[in-house]
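TEACHING EXERCISE
Course module: macromolecular assemblies
Task: Read the component lines below, then compare them to the predicted structure of the full complex.
Student: A.B.
Group: 4
Components provided:
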Amino acid sequence: MSGSIYEGKSKIVCKGKDESTLIIRYKDSATAFNGEKKAELPGKAQLNASISNIIFSYLAQHGIETHLIEVIDETTVLVKKAEIVMVEVIVRNIAAGSFSKKYGIPEGTALKNIVVEFCIKSDELGDPMINESQITAIGLAQPQELAEMIQQSRKINDLLCALFVKAGIKLIDFKLEFGRSGGQIILCDEISPDSCRLWDMETDKKLDKDRFRRDLGNVLDAYREVLRRLQNV
Ligand SMILES: Nc1ncnc2c1ncn2[C@@H]1O[C@H](COP(=O)(O)OP(=O)(O)O)[C@@H](O)[C@H]1O
Ligand SMILES: [Mg+2]
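Instructor-supplied answer key:
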C-alpha cells in the first residue's frame, strides 16, 4: 500500500488525510505466540475490521473516546493518530489463557473480582507482564495516564459484557491499547476475536483466536458467527 509507515502482524498503518490522522488496513494474516505461529486466513481482515468497527462505534456511543473517525472500506479505517502507550491492558472476567497457566486456575473458573493486568507492548521482550509501579517507574505512562487507562478499561469491560451478553457470548478476557491524542487518553487499535476470548453462552464453544492458537479448526467460521450475532443485537 502506498504511504505505508508501519506493517504490523495483523494490520498495515499508512499516512492519513492529514498529519493528525492515520489509515489502518487489516490484513488476513493470523499470528500467535509472539509471531512464532503464522497463517493466512483469507477473509479475516474483513471480519475483524467489521467486528472492531461495530464495537468501537458502540463504545463511542456510550461515552468512550476512541481513535475511530471513519470506515473507509471493508478492511480500512481512518483513525486519529495517537502516540501509543506501550502498555497493553488486559481485563479478565473468567480465568483462561496465561492467567490459568501461570496460577494453576482451570480455564473457565469464575473470578471473585475483575482482574486488570498489564504487559509491555514489545515483541522483542515477548510482551512481559508489568505492574503499575513498574510502569510509572520506567516512564511508560504517567500515573494519571495509567489511572485513566484503568478507569476506561473497567468501563469498557462493563459495556462490552452488556453487548456480548445480548449476542449470547461470554466475554472471558480482552486486551486493549490506548494512545495519547489531543492531551487525552483514547482507545486505539482494535477489539476483535483476535484480542478477546469469547465463548458461546450455552456451550462454552470458543469463538476467538484460541481456535487458531490451539488448532481447534473453523477459525473464520467462529469469527463470522461473532459478527453475525453482533449485527443482530
Ligand atoms: N490510533 C493509532 N495511532 C497510532 N498507532 C496506532 C493507532 N491504533 C493502532 N496503532 C498501532 O498500529 C499498529 C497496528 O498494527 P498491528 O498489526 O496490530 O501491529 P503489531 O504487530 O505491533 O501488533 C500497532 O502497532 C498499534 O499499536
Ligand atoms: Mg497488534
